[in-house]
Amino acid sequence: MNATPASSFFTSLLAFQPTANTPLLILKAGLLFAIAMYIVFALVVIRQIDLMTKTVRTPVTPVLRMIGWAHLIASCVVWLIAFVML
Amino acid sequence: MPTSQAKAKAQSQRVHRHPTEYSSVLAKHGECANILHSFATLPPEVGYEALLDEEKILLLLRQHPITNLHWMLIAVVMLITPFVLLPFFPPFAMLPVAFKFVLILFWLLFTSGFVLERFLVWFYNCFLITDERVIDIDFFSLVFKHSSFAQIDKIQDVDTQVGGVLYSLLDVGDVIVQTASEIPQFEIEKVPHPSQVTKLLNELMYEEEQEKIEGRTR
Fold first, then answer.
1. The domain B4-63+125-214: what is its CATH number?
2. What is the pTM of this model?
3. Domain boundaries, chain B
């Protein structure tokens, strides 16, 4: 009988033997998760800027929207760098 | 023969005087085009989503820039931390270069997010005084907002409070507006020139009375 991907994953987890690199692997996973959460925050900031600029219109509205999008793109770039480099 | 638009414009001009004609505060400060100003009189190109037709924003108020000092100092400490403090933190020094690089990048990103968030909260938590009403706009947390307003003719009392050495020197204080509307009290905290705000509100209240007496109400 062939093992399902899920059961293979749990089997490999149970068979996992800690090595010298384990703390770094945990740190990498933690970092990637934290940056992913930060990307969600950056999306919320864009939503917030949208709400604020609709409420009070000012000449700096396009600049603030651009900053919000630049912040989101920077977050995604940092996540990619972390994924590739670590 | 005048068109209907010209007639309407003439009627509007007859009904409402220009704010600088009846307000010494607005006449003194004139038009303030600096959108970052925390006491912007007759700000051009500023709008509010629920502004009525022909309603003009006379004063845009936000907290004095000095109130931003604490988070700016925190941001500076956050900015220099990876370069000044972290090298002396042993667990960080033991990490491989790639981890150090990514951690510093993430920290700087986090710092930029903190600065952006604090700036937005300061910039958009504002108080508008129009020729018809006072509008308080508050944003809570990330996506919640609360706007409340009161008609100028519903204002009953305006108080000013200035306290503390620094705030007295910088002419920063609170303005408390008591109204007969659904929101009984508006508190405008740590704004510049609170006495000027009070004076403007008194001038507006007087002008509203004059409009009623002279039958110039809309």
1. 2.30.29.30
2. 0.83
3. 4-63+125-214, 69-120
